[in-house]
Input
Amino acid sequence: MAILKSCYTVMYILAASSVRASTIGVVVTGILLSVWTKWGLFKFHWIIVKEVLTILSIGLGIFGMYYWILDASSITATEGLRALHDQGFLVNRLQLFIGIILQILSTGTMFMLSVFKPWGRRTGSS
Output
């Protein structure tokens, strides 16, 4: 029981601290790199897609993951190992896994967009 509770406690601490701090770094460096280079914020379709994926990842990380982990941590604190049979915990765990998978896919897609830079310049952008 202590291991299950400890895992969710550590995940909660990370979600509340380093994930939020790194998110600020991602946004600041992304904007600076876009504005200070030839790529711009809205000149290319692939950059706009990356921006949308970044917003999705930030939303999942700051809001979704944080609250799903907080719920799981609360349930494991009160239920212990019985939480593994609790319907609310199982639904919450599924939501957490889906969120993690979406973040991994989003990050991988952003990486591929950065490497291959598909789609050209937007029409009307200079």
Summary: The two ends are 59 Å apart (CA to CA).
